[in-house]
Every structure is written in C-alpha cells, then in structure tokens.
Amino acid sequence: MNIKNRLGSFIRGWFPEETKLPRDKIKIFETKAKVSKTKPWWWKPLLMASILICIVSAVAGFFLFDVSLAQVVAGLALSFLGICFAYYIRVRPSMNVNRVMYILLGGSVTFWIIFGGGAFIIWATGLPPPARYLGPWISLILVQIAPWIIGAFIGDWIGKRRNYILPMTP
C-alpha cells in the first residue's frame, strides 16, 4: 500500500462513514415514544444527583464563600436551564435541536482550538498580539468571529453526514 492510501485511510478514521442514504433526502427518526422507553436506567439518578449538587453548591456558596444572593439565584437558574436542556435533547430528540447542537459544538471546538492555539503560539514565541500589527477590528474578526463561522459549517457538515443523530442516542 502506498503512502497516499495509508494517509487517506488514517485520516478517514477521524470522520464518520459514508451514509447509505441518497444525498437529497435526510432521514428523520420519529421515535419520540420509543426513546423515552429506551432511555438508560442511570438517566433519572443522574438528573436527581445533578439537581442536588447544584442546590448544595449554591447553599455552600452563599453561606461559606460570601456570594451574593443575586449571584446564587442566577447561577441556580442557569444550572437548571442547562439540566433541562440536557434532559430535552436526551429524551425528546428532534432533527432541528440536533442540528443546532452540531453547529454549536463545531463552532465552539473550532474557536477554542484557534484561540488557544494562537495564545500558545504568542506565548511560546514571544510575538506581540495580532491587534498590535493588524489592528483591533481585523484581529477580532480573525481570532474570535471567523472560527465560530468556520466551525459552524464544519459541525453542520459532520451532522449532515451522521443524519443529525447525536452520539449515544437510543
């Protein structure tokens, strides 16, 4: 096997396999009732433990770490919103929500790779920040806006190849 084929098979392992569906039709899975019956046994204890941990940490933050009541309530509200969203995408999956998840995940991963990689390169080489020689607006677009857009396209592409089915979906 030559180098080109070996490199192609190595890189191919990173991406999902080719779907057997026609390119113009995306299969939507309509198993709302079936999903709630087949959810894992550990899902309910995990949700209860998550809620309990949020409440205990909020109380500890208020009494032990002198956090204001407004911050405690805001933190609890955001935590409960996150738990509700996790429950929703796990128990009632839909194609639109899964597509949004792929797009957001692709954007955030690409952003952190480019932002973290750029920060590491600047730190390791001792170069000045890009805002010094590119200007603040161009560096803002290149470092903080473009990765989200590029990552959203990558996440949507990967989601489309997986028919917008999240990993470990029952």
SSE order and pairing:
Elements: H1 3-12, H2 32-37, H3 43-64, H4 69-91, H5 95-125, H6 130-134, H7 136-161
Helix pairs in contact: 3-4, 5-7
Can you describe what's shown?
α3 runs antiparallel to α4 and α5 crosses α7. The protein has 2 domains: about 60 residues; about 70 residues. It contains 7 helices and no strands. About 5% of the residues have low confidence. The chain has about 170 residues and is an all-alpha fold. About 70% of the residues lie in helices and about 0% in strands. The two termini are about 40 Å apart. The longest helix has about 30 residues.
**Alpha carbon gap, first and last residue:** 38 Å
Count every helix, treating DSSP H or I runs of 4 or more residues as helices: 7
**Overall SS class:** mainly alpha
Secondary structure tally: strands: 0
Q: Over all CA atoms, what is the radius of gyration?
A: 22 Å
Largest beta-sheet characterization? none
Overall average pLDDT: 81
Question: What's the SSE pattern?
Answer: HHHHHHH
What is the 3D shape? Answer: flat
Q: State the oligomer.
A: single chain
Poorly predicted parts? 30-36
Question: Helicity, in percent?
Answer: over 70%
Strand content: under 5%
Q: Please, how many domains?
A: 2
Summarize the structure.
The chain has 170 residues and is mostly helical.
Main attributes of the structure:
7 helices; single chain; 2 domains; 170 residues; mainly alpha
